[in-house]
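Researcher: I'd like a candidate sequence for this fold, 209 residues long. If you have to choose between options at a position, lean toward the conservative one.
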């Protein structure tokens, strides 16, 4: 299992967890905004995995809260680069690995902000709505080639995405990353006839959206 991120220490710790659970973890330092970095990272993973990817999860994300009138072009461009260009880069470079698998599955992690607009989130919502459209087109084009495509819709999830973001965020009421991972795993295991194009992540027990 390959895990990739810009921060080596984070992916190395995850790779060690995979090793501890009996798997084989591969930590890859990769910036999804940089196509050359993605190509290098994906090729390294393909070399370690005999050229085959069963699962690819596009989960990199950036978040900002600003009224549109105060939104800087730099913030807009950053969110577009991470949240839309990133999945495009990873999917493009991973396609040959997915095509070699008999159970290939691509996951794009969107958000409930990909279905519902929120004040102060014009850039973020635009990227997440765009990711939904990206997934729908990929479903039409890739599923006839044997690659299943799912768009995942979590609510707010307690990750570093919220570190330093202005606002009153009660992180105790958020989903945990494990909640999202469990939903993705169940969708991957779903039988061929079951529709998993749109995958919901239930809110934590006792929390409503």
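Model: Candidate sequence:
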């Amino acid at each position: 299992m390959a895990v990739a991120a810009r921060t080596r220490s984070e992916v190395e710790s995850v790779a060690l967890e995979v090793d501890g659970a009996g798997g084989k973890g591969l930590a890859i330092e990769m910036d999804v905004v940089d196509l050359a970095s993605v190509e290098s990272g994906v090729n390294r993973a393909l070399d370690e995995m005999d050229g085959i990817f069963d699962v690819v999860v596009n989960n990199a994300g950036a978040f900002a809260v600003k009224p549109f009138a105060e939104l800087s072009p730099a913030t807009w461009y950053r969110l577009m680069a991470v949240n839309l260009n990133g999945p495009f880069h990873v999917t493009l470079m991973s396609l040959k690995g997915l095509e070699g698998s008999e159970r290939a599955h691509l996951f794009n992690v969107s958000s409930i902000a990909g279905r519902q607009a929120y004040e102060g989130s014009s850039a973020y919502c635009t990227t997440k709505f765009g990711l939904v459209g990206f997934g729908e087109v990929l479903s039409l084009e890739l599923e006839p080639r044997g690659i299943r495509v799912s768009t995942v819709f979590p609510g707010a999830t307690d990750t570093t995405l919220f570190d330093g973001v202005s606002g009153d965020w009660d992180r105790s009421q958020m989903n945990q990353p494990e909640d999202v991972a469990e939903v993705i795993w169940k969708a991957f295991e779903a039988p061929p006839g079951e529709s998993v194009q749109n995958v919901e992540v239930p809110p934590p027990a006792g929390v409503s959206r």
